[in-house]
Fold these 2 entries.
Entry 1:
Amino acid sequence: MIRDLAERLRGGVIAELGVAFGDFSRFLIDELTPRRFDAFDVFTLHKSSGVYMGKDVQESLGGRAHLDHYRSRFSAEIEQKKLHVFVGDATKIKESDAIYDMIYVDADHSYEGVLADAHAAISRLKEDGILIFNDYIMADYIANFPYGVVQVVNELCVNQGWKIVALAIPHHRFDDVALVRA
């Protein structure tokens, strides 16, 4: 099933909502070789101090602003016009002229944020596209912060006819869940 999903997405049009340092962007680009990749983020990590995703924020950004770090990391892809950067929350997806084969949602984890991200993403997803949510877990048990991902995904499945086609369960249990329209 996962192999089928990956093959279906190879060479497609992909969006990532919430890119952080760009580690997962790099993975998606390297593994799926999309013909177009759109990165959406508010790009405010440089205003943070301490550790984020197990990395020292300031050290990881190399003293640069978050957006500058991301653009530098993906300068080749941006120059080739394979990667487009959108600054702002997930509603910026409506500014893109792309219709996506896959959208990976990993931005605002509050219920309201995930719901807004989901609706924005669905509006730009192909009819047979794949919608993947990161952190399918009730709360960040490390930072003791409640998440809304489980509730939104479950509502999509129960009330709007989406179905889960894949669930990735890493050792730390910040799961990924892939959905398609039923």
Note: The radius of gyration is 16 Å.
Entry 2:
Amino acid sequence: MKRRNISVLRNEINERAKEFESLSRDVWIKTNSEIDAPRLHALGVVTFRWNVCENKLYSLLWTLLGLPPEEAQALSYDLNLTGVVSRLKALAKLKLKDKKLLIAIENALAVFENCRRNRNQLTHFTFSLVKTPNSPRYRLALAGRARKPAYQKNVPFEDSLRDIRQVARDIVKLNSQLMVIERRVAKRMRPTIKIKLRDWPRSKPQMLPKLLSPSKS
């Protein structure tokens, strides 16, 4: 991260310091946290950032369609994410001749799939009780939801604060990756458009995020 960006981020955090302090005294948070508040916050961050991610995916599709936003939105309305991804792949191969850009898009969509699966697991879950290590107590854990009508035992998955925050970090990195790609695609589609690509780092292929696995607890 550039020094300027770090400085801006530090100033924003300092300005919101009082807000963060007040959260620890918020009675509503204390009485409405069925699981510990830090994990609830992390789950909220995952949801918020995923919504941004979906918006960026649709934005990339609209850019590839090369239509005014209102027409592109009308054509893509009611498409599920699988439909969006399949159309992105097809349109990219038809309209883009830049091999590096095509590789970047393919990589971003693969990263998107793993992030989607992790987000779904952290959004559509059930609960289970698991024993706390080195303690006779049990804690409420997130568990996978049955995928079939037949009975299925609730299997806890990795739901530690570290695990959930990692998913949030993976998604925000994907957001940045999609933003860079969308601007490069826009420049390829419309060379006269005023986009200063030098202001955006090159989109480097990312390693696929680790999928949340069943908990060992």
Note: The mean pLDDT is 85.
